[in-house]
Amino acid sequence: MTWMVTGGAGYIGAHVVEAFRAVGLETVVVDNLSSGHRGFVPDDIPLVEADLNDRAALEGAFARYPVAGVVHIAGYKYAGESVRRPLRTYRDNVTGMVSLLEAMEGAGVRNLVFSSSAATFGTPEAELVTEASATVPESPYGESKLIGEWLLADQGRAVGLRHTSLRYFNVVGSGTDRIADTSPHNLFPLVFEALVAGRTPQINGGDYPTPDGTCVRDYVHVADLAAAHVAAARRLAAGESVEPVYNLGSGAGTSVREIMDAMAAVTGIDFTPEVRDRRPGDPARIVADGSLAARDLGWTMRHSVRDMVASAWSARQAGDRAKS
């Protein structure tokens, strides 16, 4: 049984491939390498270098490999950038999903795990979001992920596609020094880059109604996230029931200042973050209830905040050594 992992050369996708390997399941990666890295894909894992909108390449991959299901992670993942580049976002995330679903239908592949996003919620009214919370996305990125969920539901009704979508917030850490988060838009790489360059990391807002005045968010270790994708895939392959959507959250959250404190402790670089004005639209606290995923997928937060920071810092340092 082989699972196709779209975006499997990226930070999250490569960890998902590692998680499949750990349980003895074969994978084939489809990635256009626009933000992924060929070096993240082990030599013994097939890599099809193709864009999802290249139907011929997708059909060729399904014809060549005995694909039982797809874990769909590929996409344009920058919420802020999506406001500036909405057409790029919709082409990659919506048109690409349509192309993938058409190729899957043609190949008779009926199982799909979608790597969705908590950006589908927008700014929730409640501090703890559940799968039933209203979805009011506030960026083209969040909208594109929600449309992806709608496409899966429609295709499920039309042709019997079995699917589930995993929504999550901030993905951090590393499961192996071989795979690091290299995004120029994510918190951990931004803070590490500032520290290495001798700059002071910044916090946006220190007067929120939270225990330490900074925003509280869900931070999810990438290895825990990857394990949930594998659990969902195995459940689909076994014909077991799944919910259409699962939140992967802590139920408690971590403040930005707690993250900064952990950064200082792990790196050994003492700093006091610069507190700037609040950013418009940043709610004080957003965390997700992961109880449904715990029930069906064995979801749990296996890594502490220190684990998250330490593993990310180790991978960053390994990457720096490899470049030198």
TrEMBL record:
Broad EC category: isomerase
UniProt keyword annotation of Isomerase present: yes
Organism annotation: Citricoccus nitrophenolicus
Catalysed conversion reaction: UDP-alpha-D-glucose = UDP-alpha-D-galactose
Pathway: Carbohydrate metabolism; galactose metabolism
Protein family according to the UniProt entry: Belongs to the NAD(P)-dependent epimerase/dehydratase family.
GO molecular function terms noted in the UniProt entry: UDP-glucose 4-epimerase activity
Domain NAD-dependent epimerase/dehydratase stretches: 4-249
Name of the protein described by the UniProt record: UDP-glucose 4-epimerase
Domain of life: Bacteria
EC number assigned by the record: 5.1.3.2
Keywords: Carbohydrate metabolism, Isomerase, NAD
UniProt KW NAD keyword: yes
Cofactor: NAD(+)
Pfam families given in the database record: Epimerase
Gene that produces this protein: galE
